[in-house]
Automatic annotation (TrEMBL):
It comes from Pseudomonas triticicola. It comes from the Bacteria. Pfam families: His_Phos_1. InterPro entries: His_Pase_superF_clade-1, SixA. This is Phosphohistidine phosphatase SixA.
Amino acid sequence: MKIWVLRHGEAVPHGSKIDSERELTEHGRNEVLRSAAHLVGQPLTAIYASPYVRAQQTAQIVREALGFEPEIRTVEWLTPESDPDKVAEQLVSVSNVLLVSHNPLVGNLLSYLQHGAGHPSEKVSTAGLAELEHSELLIGSMKLNSLKHP
């Protein structure tokens, strides 16, 4: 079982729009394209994304870059302040999925899946892409195969 976790690309600054409506910058779009290149040939079965505009845009760029046919699955449990434990509950019956989300959730989720509760958050830049793997979803036992920053 593999799980890829992608933080959205660079977005327009806070203050210019409501947080959930912030869009990717041109730089952010280019970051996402560079990260998407690492997913070419991977056995993705689904793309799950936060409903926030910048995450939706990120997921769509990846989907188009990969020629991935299934629709993006928009889920509320991938918003910035979501609880990593609640995300893990959603992942019990899936494998080989891409999650497109935000910090602090991305960093917290990566730490939680690798080490369990109470460990410091992973540092993940915009469009940072992590690959986790294990034979099954076991909190605190997932192996971080890679964490790539564009």
